């Protein structure tokens, strides 16, 4: 026969030899084999996720989004992006499919801490997950308040202004 129908079973991609062989047979002899190598490969794990900003606090509860991106993965047909369910909205500016290597994330008021993850997908399956921690960096507790504790000299109408202070905190 000059054609065959092949059903490719699950697990095919883990087989070492992925090929179809054919040779012509006749009463005068047989030809050499002709080989067709088949490809069945999962996409590789996406590279590092890069964020447009690591400070998400200004974005929480606003419509200001943060952009996350990866490099294209060879053999990927699409990508699966996830973040904290219920407190994030993931948008795909480049649409679904092979160009979905950039997403924008809007953080709702209830966001705490989460990972944003991405997997590359194709017809053979999915890659391992690439993950980036997204942390809501709450400011730490301020230090001791310095200033006068006896309020009497500062009471109006004849009092003077009292000054109180704390040591400045980094990042605020």
N/C terminus separation: 77 Å
Number of strands: 12
User: Unreliable runs, pLDDT <50, ≥5 residues?
Assistant: none
Number of H/I helices: 0
Q: How much of the polypeptide forms β-strand, as a percent range?
A: 25-35%
Mind describing the biggest β-sheet? Answer: 4 strands, antiparallel
Rounded Rg = 31 Å
- Report helical residue fraction: under 10%
Mean model confidence by pLDDT: 90
* Biggest sheet: strand arrangement: 5-6-9-8
Helices and strands, in order, run as EEEEEEEEEEEE
Which structural traits does this protein have?
172 residues, mainly beta, 28% strand
What does this structure look like?
Helices cover 0% and strands 28% of the residues. It has 172 residues and is mainly β. The termini are far apart.
Describe how the helices and strands are arranged.
Blueprint: E1 19-22, E2 25-26, E3 29-30, E4 34-37, E5 50-51, E6 66-69, E7 78-82, E8 88-91, E9 102-107, E10 114-122, E11 125-126, E12 130-134
Antiparallel strand pairs: 1-4, 2-3, 5-6, 6-9, 7-10, 8-9, 10-11, 10-12
Summarize the structure.
By secondary structure, the chain is mainly beta. It has strands at 19-22, 25-26, 29-30, 34-37, 50-51, 66-69, 78-82, 88-91, 102-107, 114-122, 125-126, 130-134.
